[in-house]
Design brief:
The structure is a homodimer. Chain A is α/β, with parallel strands linked by helices. Helices cover 48% and strands 16% of the residues of chain A. In chain A, strand 1, helix 1 and strand 2 form a beta-alpha-beta unit. In chain A, helix 1 crosses helix 11. Chains A and B meet through helix 7, helix 8, helix 9 and helix 10 of A and helix 7, helix 8, helix 9 and helix 10 of B.
């Protein structure tokens, strides 16, 4: 599947900007020899890098979308920002996919407004791969749509299904609605309506799942509104982070515990790596024409590399075309 | 504050029933010498126990509310169940508080229908104390109301505020709205309306908090609708459980890691205890006349003891009266 693919990359994305994006791009180019990068950012950042790297072209931009800005307004106003230019390259067919670890809100706005929705998609949705100790789990939507209607969730389920089957190579993923009880009639009025519609329209839908089921790996895909999904992924991140921190404290207690730390270090590191969001590097915004992968603000070099590689894989597997062909336009 | 208080206890509550409830009651009676227990359950369970324990009176009941039953229907039908009888004792003034680790839904229904709402309270809410590595955090509502209006959340905030100040002895708790961004205008339409109303009505309200803020201990109290709150606490429980399990796997890898396990065992146990829900033993259903504490289905003996002691403390500190006096009835 290693055919040529071009990904535009926002050099300014992420809390650390070019400092981690450039090494991430370099690592992605080294790993994938059919990958071309269009690197968008300030001339003095992207030009020297492109000169020193094969298959990387500099796309100088004069503006930057900042973290605190109003997403849609920034995207409409800052037409020469690395984020907007990167998305425009996809719309114009110069790149097939886009990656940024910049402001999530601005990435979602740019993806939707500039790259544009696939015909029939009511709302593009952010689909994340949650790295869990037992196995990864897909959740969609995790923040693109704070206010949802039941029919949106049907499309979220259908898009996540395609992504999981194609990109993650999961056969017949089991899709659950994130709810507050496992029985059919549980939950808010909205959740009950979603349940009924998903049951009618989505063959891989298996019923309601609860918060405890996420880490347990009971289901492959959780479908939810972007508000609940976003609270959920941030709660997981916060809980895991706090526990690892507390664990660090445990190991630092005295000489005996420090010795213990040495003895488990490599395996603990492996566990931390398993549950690290860096493994996938970003969440695809499903439902836009072309691949659009949104990285975590706190992305490191590995996360950037993996986010770019997820973008190229999403392009090569024609996820957008498959969504366009199979999506239920009559929900 | 050790004045006499009577708590009715559902002997059948919890996944393990009397097997853990009875030792829990015994431990509570040992710890609090001014505590009287009215133990509701089958005669052959509660009578022999009451005969052998001072300050414990058997209240034989012939029915049981089962876990899968429709909550409100079960409460209306099974008038001689341990759950319904326990709540009726509070309504009749024979007990001042009630504790059960039975079906959460049925406890909420029984608390609301039988004990009854405080005048002016639109919806009683389940308020939990989340044990976090750094410090405990209060969240309200965590499941009593899947569908909420912004005015409910104002009362949830006011009630949780009183509970945290009185029972947990937190001075001027900082209250946040659980949302998907920290800026004022973030979130769903519902979240934005809640934010504006909380800002107007609740002096201790400080703004929006995110999922990552829960474990970080940025705020003392999170107020949210019962759907989001329930997903949130179950996600925390699932994530923490999965990580501790994975950690167990790490320590079991080989002889070196098993040695490490021995070296950190006591401190790891202490951490696990810190983040265990057994410490508080139950979530108060705020807004009903009298104390009503709902225990976790998986409660062990310690959790039952602590749940009963939380009930007696809630009674002694007149939380219900304070709620009745201070609640904003004009939201």
């Amino acid at each position: 599947m290693e055919n040529a693919v071009t990904i535009s990359v926002d050099a300014l994305g992420g809390d650390k900007g070019p400092e981690v994006v450039l090494p991430g791009v370099e690592a992605a180019l080294e790993q994938d020899h059919e990958l071309e990068i269009l690197l968008c950012g300030p001339a003095d950042v992207v030009e020297p890098f492109a000169q020193n790297h094969e298959r990387c072209t500099a796309v100088p931009c004069t503006e930057e979308v900042l973290m605190g800005e109003h997403p849609a307004r920034a995207v409409r106003k800052k037409k020469d920002s690395s984020l907007v230019v990167g998305c425009r390259l996809v719309r114009e067919g110069k790149a097939q996919g886009f990656f940024s670890a910049g402001s999530t809100g601005a990435c979602l706005a740019a993806g939707t407004i500039i790259i544009g929705r696939i015909k029939g998609i009511i709302r593009p949705a952010l689909c994340t791969i949650l790295p869990m100790p037992k196995r990864p789990v897909v959740m969609c939507d995790v923040g693109a749509n704070a206010d949802c209607k039941p029919e949106y969730l049907v499309q979220f389920a259908q898009m996540a299904d395609i992504f999981a089957e194609q990109v993650l190579e999961w056969k017949d993923p089991r899709i659950a609605l994130l709810n507050i009880g496992s029985e059919d009639a549980k939950g808010s009025e909205f959740a009950q309506e979603c349940h009924d519609l998903l049951k009618q329209k989505v063959p891989h839908f298996v019923g309601n799942g609860e918060g405890t089921d996420i880490a347990a790996g009971t289901f492959d895909i959780f479908v939810t509104d972007g508000f609940t999904g976003n609270v959920c992924i941030k709660t997981i991140e916060g809980t895991a982070g706090a526990l690892f921190n507390a664990l660090k404290g445990v190991f630092k207690s005295n000489i005996a515990t420090m010795l213990a730390a040495v003895l488990v270090k490599s395996r603990l590191k492996a566990l931390k790596k398993t549950v690290s969001s860096d493994t996938y590097g970003g969440a695809p915004l499903l439902g836009v024409k072309g691949a659009c992968i949104v990285g975590h603000g706190a992305s490191n070099e590995t996360a950037i590399k993996n986010g770019i590689l997820t973008a190229s894989k999403t392009v090569r597997l024609h996820v957008s075309d498959l969504i366009a062909q199979t999506i239920d336009q009559d929900v």
